[in-house]
């Protein structure tokens, strides 16, 4: 079975490897391989690889001297890694246990194995897990130079959105005021602050806010981060007209909070609005909702319409980068 790899020209190999390593995407269980002038760099999560790169299946060998899970099983298991934790998605508990045992026995730098035990549920968007190996569901995730401590059983977090987050982070300027309305453990807030922005993050999940504060300390940006536990609508009055940039990453119901976003927006503000819509009109509903909420107080200019990923059959997770000018 092939290994997901980024294929690049050999002369671009080191720069590409460095960029993938910064994002925590290089799979160190396999060798980087050269064939016919191309370099094949194994990756842990092909969906998180930036669109600028080509991902292919390639039969790259396991790193010499390393035992991989497939070496201990009669099949090649499917799994994803986040930090030193491996996540599997198996309905058969016996098969899940077999995979977990092989992963722990292998040479992968892993201490914990989790099996998804439910779909994402509730207003706090968390799921149940079966702990197959390890002590708990807390993980340390590294992404583009930032690190995030979090508990997968207590907070929502998707490592697969790393590339999209980095796309937005690169737009942030030092000194601007950034407000994340559904901040979680800080995957937008922390790198924003590292670029010099003054940030506010709110979340109804109190545990997520505790991790946000801890992650601000871990990354040395606590002086530029304010973390507020509770409904963002309750904090909006205090920060009315404050924000130069607003993140709305609550794709199933962000439209319900657009009035609050308009309250938060300053004279000139960038809005990053995430949505999930049918492929027939992925951007229209969000764009219409933003215009209805912001006009005529603001001129509304949609600068970017971008599909983040496929969400379900015929449905896409999309983002609109919108420039609001009072």
List the helices and strands and how they pair.
Blueprint: E1 3-9, H1 13-22, E2 33-35, E3 38-42, E4 54-58, H2 69-72, E5 80-82, E6 85-88, H3 93-105, E7 112-116, E8 129-133, E9 138-143, E10 146-151, H4 162-169, E11 177-180, H5 189-194, E12 198-203, H6 206-218, E13 225-229, H7 232-235, E14 243-248, H8 258-264, E15 265-278, H9 284-294, E16 299-312, E17 315-325
Parallel strand pairs: 6-7, 11-12, 11-14, 12-13, 14-15
Antiparallel strand pairs: 1-3, 1-4, 2-3, 5-6, 7-8, 9-10, 15-17, 16-17
* CATH-level-2 architecture of the largest domain: 3-Layer(aba) Sandwich
Write out the CATH superfamily name of the largest domain.
Vaccinia Virus protein VP39
Q: Into which percentage range does the β-strand content fall? A: 25-35%
Q: What coarse outline follows from CA principal-axis ratios? A: globular
Helix content: 10-25%
Q: Which sheet architecture does the biggest sheet show?
A: 7 strands, mixed
CATH class of the largest domain: Alpha Beta
CATH topology of the largest domain: Rossmann fold
Number of helices in the DSSP assignment: 9
- By secondary-structure content and strand pairing, the structural class works out as alpha/beta
Instruction: Flag low-confidence runs.
Output: none
Beta-strand segment tally: 17
Distance between the termini: 55 Å
Whole-number average pLDDT? Answer: 93
Radius of gyration, CA atoms, in whole angstroms: 21 Å
């Amino acid at each position: 079975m092939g290994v997901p790899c980024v294929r690049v020209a050999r002369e671009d190999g080191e720069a590409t490897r460095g960029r993938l390593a910064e994002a925590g995407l290089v799979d160190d269980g396999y060798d980087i391989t050269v064939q016919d002038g191309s370099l094949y760099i194994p990756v842990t999560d092909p969906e998180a690889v930036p669109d600028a790169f080509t991902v292919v299946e390639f039969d790259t060998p396991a790193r010499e001297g390393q035992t991989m899970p497939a070496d201990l099983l009669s099949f090649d298991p499917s799994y994803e890694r986040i930090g030193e934790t491996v996540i599997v998605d198996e309905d058969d508990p016996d098969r899940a246990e077999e995979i977990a045992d092989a992963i722990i026995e292998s040479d992968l730098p892993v201490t914990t194995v989790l099996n998804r035990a439910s779909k994402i549920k509730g207003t706090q968007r968390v799921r149940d897990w079966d702990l197959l190996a390890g002590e708990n569901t807390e993980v340390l995730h590294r992404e583009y130079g930032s690190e995030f401590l979090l508990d997968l059983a207590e907070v929502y977090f998707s490592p697969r959105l790393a590339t999209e987050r980095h796309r937005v982070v690169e737009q942030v300027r030092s000194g601007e005021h950034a407000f994340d309305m559904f901040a979680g453990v800080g995957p937008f807030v922390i790198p924003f602050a590292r670029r010099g922005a003054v940030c506010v993050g709110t979340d109804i999940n109190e545990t997520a806010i505790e991790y946000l504060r801890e992650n601000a300390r871990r990354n040395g940006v606590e002086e530029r981060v304010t973390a507020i536990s509770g409904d963002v609508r309750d904090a909006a009055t205090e920060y009315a007209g404050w924000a130069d940039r607003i993140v709305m990453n609550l794709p199933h119901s962000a439209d319900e909070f657009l009035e609050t976003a308009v309250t938060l927006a300053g004279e000139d503000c960038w809005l990053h609005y995430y949505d999930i819509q049918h492929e027939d009109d992925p951007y229209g509903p969000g764009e219409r909702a933003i215009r209805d909420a912001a006009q005529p107080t603001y001129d509304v200019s949609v600068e970017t319409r971008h599909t983040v990923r496929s969400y379900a059959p015929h449905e896409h997770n999309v983002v609109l980068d919108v420039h609001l000018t009072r």
